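Give me the fold.
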Amino acid sequence: MKATAKKWFEGRRLLIATKHGKERVIAPVLEQALGVICVVPNDYDTDQFGTFTGEIKRLVDPLETARKKCKAAMSKYGFDLAIASEGSFGPHPTIGFLPCNEELLLLIDQRNSLEITERELSTETNMDCANITTEDELHAFTRSCGFPEHGVVLSIPGTGEITKGIDTLQKLTRTFQRYKKTADKVLIETDMRAMHNPTRMKVIEKAVIKLSERILNHCPECYSPGFGISEAIPGLPCEMCNLPTKSTLAYRYSCLRCDHTLQLPKSDKKKEDAAFCDYCNP
């Protein structure tokens, strides 16, 4: 099965649409799995599609943003195969008090009219920010976020003054002292760009591995790559009352090119804990 799907990509040049070092984890996985030759442009500005620090707003959802990154890069550099990623940070979708990082990856193959996506959701993130007034507060923040392996950003909101990629104590102290000369408070944030955030880079790597596995999974009917989960079907029965819960009972798998679908039961659980049952625990 894997060999069949790999033939679609082997030997082709894959453009990685990034300026933030994501090729460090994307290229090794996809070159090994698909046999592609990864290429990274040295002058492609993905910040035009949005920045974490807000100078440029992301105007569309993560999938459409990744699509725009791919298509603009393919047009600019003359490729028919490209990949882009887009990260999002916020509260966990089901456990609201937990912060999380979701990484979306999109591979576009124009030659074969394919778009293959994968996501990885992780609670492993150090995303944080604070308004600080003293060097004690500055160093307390950096100790909590894994500095200097993880970079930070200092800014004076509303002024356009911002310094990204701070990853040395000297630059940190010098920038803070300079900003404090004109502002009562300084905003410090974790730098969430991948090349300055090893924790995020690990989440991207997990997403790439999942994407490679999905690409290599071909449709049983037409043999196109990317056959994978398209829908989670709720209804896992409660262990106490046996009524359906909102938890996943099965997954629907779909082909990206033909109409073939397949429904398979979720293999890891047969019953759901009563704590997650709307009837036993309303």
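The CA atoms of residues 249 and 268 lie 10 Å apart.
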